[in-house]
Every structure is written in C-alpha cells, then in structure tokens.
Amino acid sequence: IFAGQEDSQFIQIQNLRKDIEDQAGNFLREINELQKDLETKDNLCHQLEDQIIIVGESPEFIQMRAQLLDDLKSQEERHLQQTTEFSKQLEAKDKICLEAAQLRERLNLCESCPICMEAWTTDNHRMAALACGHIFGESCLRQSLQRNPLCPECRANASENDIRRLFPR
C-alpha cells in the first residue's frame, strides 16, 4: 500500500516540477519580449529627444510656443470670466429658488389656522385677517381676542372690530 502511495506522490511531484518548469519558460519568454520592446521604445525616445532639441532651438518653434502660450492665457481669462458670470447667475437662481421655497412654505402655512392648525372652512372657521395682516380662523381669532386684545402673531393691539373676513378663491 505504501509503495503505491509513494509512486503516486512521486508522479505528482514530477508533474508539479514539469508545470513549474513550463511556467518558468513562459515567464522567461515574456521577459525577453518585454526587454526587446523596452529597447525599441528606449531607442525611439532617444531619437525623439534628439529631434526635440533640434526643433526647440528653431525660431519658428519659439514663436509658435509663444503664440500658443498667449492663446492659452487669453482662453484661461475667458473661462474665468465665464465661470464668474455663471457663478453670479447661479447665485441669482439660488436666491430666486430660496424665495420661492419660502413663499411656498408661507402659502402652505396659510392653508390652516395658526391658532388651532385646522384647515379653513366656510362655516365659523373661515379665513379672517386683522389690520396687521395676519390670517387666522375667524372663530379662533374671536376667542383669542376676547381673552387678550392682541394679535396672536405679532402682539399688535387688536379688537373684534378689526376682524376682516377673507374670500380666497
């Protein structure tokens, strides 16, 4: 039994050794190809460096580079101006959106009486305003003014004679 296991393990070891040698050969071939590719690219780099040195010293190249730098500078200035204009427009739009949101919030608050927080009805609890402009349900407002002759919002002097019914659409 042990001899059969030893033969089997030996074969496995031989197979592993062969796989490792094959992989090592593949790696060596890849390394050789990469070295050749590196040498080719290195030669190209040296050739390009030589050409750049020659072109870099020519007056045409110097003039072209100066023109490109000027163009880039003017383009950068235009972009900065546009960015500033866009920022101002964005700020204006943000301000409008904020005002609209605040107005929407105020309108949502006006859908119900600020005293009892119930919706307006056509009965006793219809919309009514005081001289200061604050809006309440009429029945809530009358009760509040009987207890205290001040606007429940701003505390301005008020009486039941100041109550004006509102007729929204």
TrEMBL record:
Q: List residues of the RING-type domain.
A: 113-155
Which GO BP terms apply? interstrand cross-link repair; protein ubiquitination
- Read off the InterPro entries from this record: RFWD3, Znf_RING, Znf_RING/FYVE/PHD
Q: Name one Pfam family in it.
A: zf-RING_2
Q: Which PANTHER family match?
A: E3 UBIQUITIN-PROTEIN LIGASE RFWD3, RFWD3 PROTEIN
Listed GO CC annotations: nucleus
Report a single Gene Ontology molecular function.
Answer: ubiquitin-protein transferase activity
Annotated coiled-coil positions are 17-51
Instruction: Fetch the SUPFAM superfamilies from UniProt.
Output: RING/U-box
Name the chain's protein. RING-type domain-containing protein
The UniProt entry, under SMART domains, shows: RING
- State if 4Fe-4S is listed as a keyword: no
